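Hi R.,

Here's the input for the protoporphyrin IX containing FE complex you asked about:
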Amino acid sequence: MDKNKVTPTQPLVVRIFHWGFALSMVMIVLTGFELHSPFTFLAFNYGNVFVVHMTFAWLALGFVSLRIVDAFIRKDTSFIPKLSDFRGFVGVLAYYLFLRDSLPPGEKYNSGQKFIFFSWFIVFAVATLLGIATYFMGEYLVWVWRLVGGWQIVRTVKFLAAVYFSATILVHIYLSFTEDLSRLQAMITGYERQEP
Ligand code: HEM
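And here is the predicted structure with protoporphyrin IX containing FE in place:
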C-alpha cells in the first residue's frame, strides 16, 4: 500500500497565476530582446513582435493582479521575505553550494525562493511602469521618463530587467527539476506527495 501522504499545497488560483505568468514572462523577455536589437537571421516583422510583446505584457499584469488579490484574500505572505530570511539565506546558499546536506527548516518557500519571487514582483512592477510610459511616447507619464533620466536610460533599465528575468528564470527551472519533484507535481495538480 502507498503510505505517502498527499497534501494540498497549491490552490487553483496560484496554479493559474503561475503558468499564465510563466508563459507571459517567457514571451515578454524573448520579444523584448527582439525589439531591443532585432536578430538579423529571424526577419520577424517589427510591428507583429510589438503586438505580441504588448499582449503578453497586459496578460502578465492580469495574472499578477489576480495573485495579489488572492494573497490579500487568503492573507498569504508565503512569497514575501521576512527579516529572519536574511539569516536563513546563508543556510539555503550553503545547501545549494553542496556545503550542507539539507535545506534549513523553512516555510512554504525557502529564503532563496522568497527573495527571487519577491524580486520578480518588484522588477515586474518597475518594468511595467516604464513600459506603459514608453507606450504613451511622451503623451502621458512624462514624469516617469524625467525621473529615470531619459529615453535611453528607460531602454537600458528594461533591457537589464529582461537579463535579470532570463538569468533567474533559468535557475528557477533548473531547481524545480533537480530538487523535490513533488513540489512541481503540486504546481500542476495542486497536491504534493510527502513521505510519511
Ligand atoms: C518550466 C518552467 C517552470 C517550472 C517547471 C516552474 C516550477 C515551479 C515550482 C515547482 C514552483 C513551486 C516551488 C516550491 O513549491 O518549492 C514555482 C513557483 C513559482 N514560480 Fe515557477 N516554474 C517555471 C517557470 C516560471 C517562470 C517563467 C516564472 C516567471 C518569472 C515563474 C514564477 C514563479 C513564481 C512567482 C512562483 C511562486 C508562486 C506563488 O506562490 O505565487 N515560474 N515554480
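One thing worth noting: The mean pLDDT is 93.

Cheers,
M.
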